[in-house]
Design a protein that fits this description.
Layout lengths: L18 H4 L3 E4 L6 E4 H12 L3 H13 L9 E3 L5
Parallel strand pairs: 2-3
Antiparallel strand pairs: 1-2
């Protein structure tokens, strides 16, 4: 059974489009269901695979166009790995 994230979050939560690309990058939601939490590394990997971008281009695109976009109070949260 495939779960639809929209069944578990507020109708005000913002989902990245196109959903067929970015829904697989969702790792959760805030406890109140107001914000979606995305895996930043998975988003960059999707850009590399689906848009045939280099890692550098995909990272730059993510940082400028997705991470840097303010979409209102329910702007998604992006979690990423920290390499120590």
């Amino acid at each position: 059974m495939i779960l639809d994230i929209k069944d578990y979050v507020s109708e005000d939560a913002i989902l990245l489009e196109p959903r067929d690309r970015y829904d697989n990058c969702i790792i959760g939601a805030t406890y109140d269901g107001e914000k979606i939490i995305y895996d930043a590394v998975a988003i960059i990997e999707a850009l590399i695979e689906e848009d045939e971008m280099t890692e550098e281009d995909a990272t730059e695109y993510f940082e400028f166009n997705i991470l840097g976009a303010y979409m209102g109070e329910n702007t998604p949260i992006y979690a990423g790995a920290i390499l120590l």
